[in-house]
Each structure stands twice: as C-alpha cells, then as structure tokens.
Amino acid sequence: MSACWKVPGSIRELESLQITAENKQEVAEHIVRLTAAAYNFSQHDLEIVVSKASDIVGTAAISVQLANDLLDIIDNLLNKTHTLGPLSSSILHLVERVGNQIRFPGTQLNITTATVSLNIVNVSLLQFWDIAFGVISYINGFTQQVYLNKTSPPDPVAFISLPATFGSWTTRALPSRIQFQFYGETSLFNDSHRRGQVLNSYVVSSSIGETSVQNLKEPVQVTLRHLKPKESGQRVSCVFWDFRQHRGAGGWNGSGCEVTSSSGDYTNCSCDHLTHFGILLDISGQTIDPLNLWILTLITHVGCGISSFFLGLILMTYMAFGNLRQDYPAKILVNLCASLFLLNMAFLTNSWLSSFGQRGLCVAAAATLHYLLLSSCSWMCVEAIHMYFALVRVFNIYIRHYLFKFCLIGWGLPAAVVICVLSIDMAAYGPQEVKSAGPLDNFCWLKSGPAFYVSVVIYCGLVLLVNFSMSAVVLRQLRAMRSAQRGGSSGGRLLQHLRATASLTVLLGLTWGCGFFAWGPAQLPFSYLFSILNTLQGFFIFVFHCLLKENVRTQWRIHLCGGRLQLSQCSDWSKAKAGATIRGHRAGSWADSKSGSITTSCTGSRKNLILPQDYETGFDFSNQWSDQRNDWSNQWNDGSDRWNGRSDGNDQWNLRSDGNIQWNGQSDGNIQWNGQSDGNIQWNGRSDGNIQWNGPVERAE
C-alpha cells in the first residue's frame, strides 16, 4: 500500500482524504472494506462515501477492477440503507460515469453485484442492428445478457429493446458505446411526492454515451415484472426517473411513456427516450374503469363550460346595473362569481397549455389553477361568515374596512399559500398524467404529495367545516323565524325551507364535500355527484341568486325587455315589487339606522337590507343583506333623539326574543312609534299590546 496517505480507520476520517490518480485504487478498496463492515450509515456517512467515490471517478480513466470496486461500494450502501434521499441522483450519475469512462478490451463488459448490474457494449451505430438487454433471476440473485435479435428471455425481470435505427433521431455522429443498467434494489428511487403510488418493479435503464436521447420516432420497448402482482382494477403507469425534479433530487415522470399492455405479473411500456424506467402501481384505493372515467371527464368539461357561461351572465348583470351591487352581499357575490369563472377557465385551458411541453408554462398554469381553487373556497367561506354576522350576530358588531378585510381573505390568503409552495419547492408543480378511455393526457397540477394534502385537502377541509357550521346556525335561525310566522300552509313553508337549504348549499359550496367521500365502494357514485354538482355550481348560483331574484328580474325588464314586458324605471310596479315579497311575515328586516337605509328606489333595488329581499322565494341570500357596515352605531338624529339601538333617555328599543326576532318598543308616555305601510315595505314585529311596527318608519310624537 502506498505510504503517501494515511489509512482512515472510519468513514468519518475519509472526509479529509485527498484522492489522487496514484491512490484511487487503494482508497476504493479500503472504502469497500469500511462500507462492508459498517452496520448502518448516517446521512453524513453516506455523503462522505458518495463524495469520495465521485472523486475517484473524476481522476482519470477507470480500470475494470476499479469499476468493480465502485459498484461494490454502491451495493453496500443499497443493502444497508432504506432510502438515500437527495443522494439518489448522485449515485445514478456516478454509475453512468463509470460506464462511460471504463476501459476494457473487446466489445462487451458485464459487471454484476447483488443489487446493481452494468452491461457495456461497444458497437458501430452507423451499422446499428436490433439490440436488447434482459435480466432474469435465479435463486441467488440476477443474471443479465445482451441480445442482438430482440428475443426476450423466458420470464424476464426486466427487458429493454432499442429501436432498429437511431438515424431518424439525429444525423450527428453518435458515440459507439451503449450501456445498460439494472437496479435490483428500489431504495434509490423513493419519490415521496407521488401520492398513492409505489414503485412496483425493479429499474432498468439504457444510455448512449453522454448524449441525451429524446423524441425517438421509433419508441423504446420496455418490459418489467411486477414486484407485487397487480390485482384486478388496479392501475399501473410507465415512468422514468427525471433528474430535474425536486431541485435536482429526482422524481418519477410519465412524460413520453405509455402502457402498451399490462397483466397481473408484467407491464409493457413504450417510451420515446432513453433513461431509467420503472412501473408505478396505484395503491390509493379503488380505481374507476375507463368508460366511467371518460364519462366523468366529459361531464366535468361540459359542466365547467356551462358554469362559465352563466357565471359570465351574472358578472355582466351586476356590472351593468350598478344599483344591484350597492350592498356588501352583492359585492361578495361578484367576487365569488369572478373567482369561480376564472377557476373554470383555468381548468378548461390547462390541458391545452400542458400540451406545449414547456415546463415554465406548465408550472405557471398549475400554480394559477391552485390559486383560483383556493380563492374560490375562500370566497365561499367569506359568504358563510357574512351570513352569520348578518343574521345571527346582528348587533354589537363593528369591523372597520369590512369588505377590504374580506378581500384579503378571498384573494390575499390563497396567494400567500401558493407563494409559500413555490418558494419551498417550485418542482411541486408540473405535468400529471390523467388516464381516460384514450391515451394519457398531461395535466398541470400539484405533483408533491405533502404540498397537495396541506395546501388543498386541509385548506379546503377547514373551509368546508366552517361553511357547514355556519350554514347550520343560519338555517336554524331562519327556521326559528319561520316557525313564528303566521299564515301559510305547512307545505309552503317546507318548500321555502328546502329552497333556502338548496340556496345555501350552492352558495357555500357544501357539495365540494362529496370529494372527501369518493373512495372505497362509494368512490364511483360520489365521483358522479362531485362532478355534476360542482361543475354546475355556476349555473345553480345563476338560478338561485339571479334568475329567482325579484330585483334582478326587475332590472332585466327595465333595461333589456321591450314591448309589454318592459318596465318604466319609476313605474308603480317597479317601485313596489321589490319589497312586496316580504310583506306579512313576522320576521323583521333589519335596516341601517341611517334615514335613507330602508327606502326603496324607483328602480326596485333596496339598499342596506339584511334579511334577503326574496323572503318568499326561498331566502335568496346572495346579495340582499344589510349594507349596515356591520355597525349599529350609525346614527339618525333629528336634533332631539339619537338612535343607535339604545335609549337617549326618552325612547328605548329593546330586542326581545321568544324564538323569533321581535321589535318591542317601550314608550315613556311621550313618544310612541307607529309605522304605516305604503304597500312597499312592512315591518312586522310581535306586539306586546302597546306598540306594533308596520312599514317604513315614520316618527310620530
């Protein structure tokens, strides 16, 4: 042994060792002994060993003996390590460099260990013939062989067949060395970003020198045996190890590969490039058969197109008629519809954008789709919170910059989440394979499992939890108000309650909860429910919160209709119609304390009403709550009395409840309030025998 270097007694002592052309063979043999004697390796030990092996390869030409030692080192690491994490790509590059730099006599060399096999063939690619590589197993390990006639061995563990000519791929002078690699240990290829998929085969690869072989007109054929037999209904996918993913750590990618056939034990793949190939098995649960998957895909795209059209109609209606969006609910509805409209458009154009094959464009499309999905969920949550404030927490609420803070939740919070994902790992976004009845389609979306579960599943789950809670409280409040309502049949009240429930369900996106139940035996029915109800959400919002809304129809008749259907802006009908729907109900419409807050404009829109305007048509909640600025401290002062919900010494308002919301005024004997109805708006409160409220408030002393 050379005296130029001190023999390290442990792996840690290798860190300071300098590798030279003179000592590289001795160092490699010593590392083989150290790694064989070690019981396990720390992450730092692994980094030292891989670093020194790379230094050895980088010195000069590699002999056959040195190549054997280097593969023995890698074999020791794989046998004693469950996962190599970020070092996986470094080890794969190391093996490939060994194959490119080794010098040997003859045309073929085979180096085999228990977990790694390397086969090198020197050929003339100008006179290239069919060539293939196969691996079969025996009781003590694997044996490999190069085949010159594409004949597959019986029961191969792995088999890869190269196309007959590479001339159609390029006209450049090609290297004359082809190398095949086989990895009989899967710890090199752990990809935690793959949700519900596991590697179900050993890995085989092929390369030609240091040239990147892509976009082959005649594809490479790969056959791999499953490590675990595929059960009926399970889905497999052909993938390759993409060194660019996850910031160079590597990960599985299905681009350019497709399954040509698959049985319980084998899968045949066709790929348009050379690299490391494997088979991923979907273990996420029951899969959907191709026919139903094609139907679901069709429903999804048609539903999104329909929703986009009707969401556009809602936005144009509220943008065109300014008095429809004067209160907070209308403004919140416009933001929700805008977010859903953009989400549908981003979804419908996603596959088209991914077809360009530009990674940057795909990342941008995936991040945009992610942002708009979270934004839509956030605005549904905003709707729920606002309803709670308006119906349940009516008094003693004051929030400055009310709508601005809701905009921060609806638009700002999702942006913060997406920026965090991009800053942590931009490779979390990228192309995904979507298997339908036809070939694989790429779809730009979240590829990272942890990022998906944290930023989508947990985020949307929390939103749904809030929305279900708020909707239950609001429906309970409305039911209590209806139970005290006089008149009307029980069937009519039931119909109104069902319409109110449907309206809330659509507006708050409660149907999104179907996605959490689409697994196991219920996967298929809940998948259909999820696809139909959620893709048509925009249409349902249009029906409940635009088409059935009296003041919206009034605006349409005033501005869009002609002949007998057209209304004059100040006709008696248009003035009275908007408020007539809530006449006769005991539930009082809470109004802002300003003097003009409970008047009705001649165009039929009412500003600052908290209870829905279409009370009789099923509680259309979207844009009829009070624009009270969340604040009952607004004042109306005629010089003697000050109203902000409490007495100034002469008059007092008391809110009493017997299961319903009631107004009961208490008089000090000097002032008594009696409202008179003008046929437009009525206040119906429960009287205590002295005072009853009816109609727009007129003060009488």
Residue share in β-strands? 15-25%
Largest sheet, described in full?
8 strands, antiparallel
Q: How does CATH name the architecture of the largest domain?
A: Up-down Bundle
Structure annotation, total helices = 14
Say what the CATH topology of the largest domain is.
Rhopdopsin 7-helix transmembrane proteins
Which radius of gyration do the C-alpha atoms yield?
36 Å
Structural class: alpha+beta
What's the overall average pLDDT, rounded?
Answer: 74
What's the total count of β strands? Answer: 20
- Anisotropy-based shape: elongated
Count of structural domains: 3
For the record, what is the CATH homologous superfamily label of the largest domain?
Answer: Rhodopsin 7-helix transmembrane proteins
Distance between the termini: 115 Å
Provide the CATH top-level class of the largest domain: Mainly Alpha
